[in-house]
Amino acid sequence: MAISAYALISTSTLFRPSPFSKGRLPPPPPLSKSLSLSLHKTINYNCIVCSLNHHNSSDSLSANKFVCTKSLSSSPFLDSVLLLCASVALSFSLFFSDADSASAFVVTTPRKLQSDELATVRLFQDNTPSVVYITNLAVKQDAFTLDVLEVPQGSGSGFVWDKQGHIVTNYHVIRGASDLRVTLADQSTYDARVVGFDQDKDVAVLRVDAPKDKLRPIPIGISADLLVGQKVYAIGNPFGLDHTLTTGVISGLRREISSAATGRPIQDVIQTDAAINPGNSGGPLLDSSGSLIGINTAIYSPSGASSGVGFSIPVDTVGGIVDQLVQFGKVTRPILGIKFAPDQSVEQLGVSGVLVLDAPANGPAGKAGLQSTKRDSYGRLILGDIITSVNGKKVTNGSDLYRILDQCKVGDEVTVEVLRGDHKEKIPVLLEPKPDES
């Protein structure tokens, strides 16, 4: 800034040299201890000449005396003085101004974006206030001081469901937490309590006591009419980096993954190549209109980082679960009340179906008379019933059984066909609700 100001003063006050007889200034007199400044004016030009006079000089001018000699009218001289004052004022304004020296003279043109870029920017700006950052806190005891500390053990994403402060996320984001904290888009943090969760579908609902003007519910869309190839957008907090946007397309539909908590299959999952990393879990998957179509829940990656294969629970599945959790605090899902063997074990027997390992007497299957696998008095294994169909729908593995039960309601009576020994039997079973989870 100082160099710019000095250059401006120099160019503004520059005068052409006086036309002396030989075209150059006369040599200065010898140095002395006194300084005299003389201003000489010729016919058309002004120049500043510094002369140093000796004490013993015969010049009649005394030391340190300012001499101004003016030949013609004072108008050109006055103009020069005004120009000098204006230059000094401008220089001081540059020195004391807050503007950067470079930006003061550079005019930036507005950035031009394509229409699709503008749409993406607008989508991110409109939906970011609906996405929250969730911190999972656990109580730990110091091994040396025995002090009880509350330390973060994980983090994830979530989104605002309604104005009442309900936050939707994945169950595995909050699993094992002693306390939960939710950070909104404006960086305000609130303690959250668990309203309810569904381990089988990896969905949880929290609630925060935040002002309603800070809560912006996310627009809810439909996942039934999605198509492979359409654009999707994921907003989340990967690796703790808040509010990150990634884009991609729907790579596949009607995928099936297993719940991380119970192993129960989740059907009709959306597959996308939008980058989903640790910390994105629980965040929203949006379509091009900015509507919610799924919850980012899992990735397929040997290394744990994004590999271009991410999975989201469809919003049509999430909507019904959230409504039950908000209203009842739990999901009333029907069960048969059995424990069954892994699918590989049944395949080794050369049969198709679900092998019943245990059917407690107080459960629906036990009350109906299904038989469990047991050992006789000699230690030999006696296989239990093998379920081959439910309500006429073929059952080849555990996923088929879960899929059929998801279409039923508590209190429905279903006909279970089993292979018992070398013959088949049909047994009516009255479905009961799943016991409450602690």
TrEMBL record:
One annotated GO molecular function: serine-type endopeptidase activity
Compartment(s) where it occurs, according to its Swiss-Prot or TrEMBL record: Plastid, Chloroplast
GO BP: photosystem II repair; proteolysis
Top-rank taxon: Eukaryota
Residue intervals of the PDZ domain: 325-422
GO cellular component terms attached to this protein's record: chloroplast thylakoid
CDD domains associated with the record: cpPDZ_AtDEGP1-like
Keywords: Chloroplast, Hydrolase, Plastid, Protease, Serine protease, Transit peptide
Family statement: Belongs to the peptidase S1C family.
UniProt name for this protein: Protease Do-like 1 chloroplastic
Species assigned in the record: Tripterygium wilfordii (Thunder God vine)
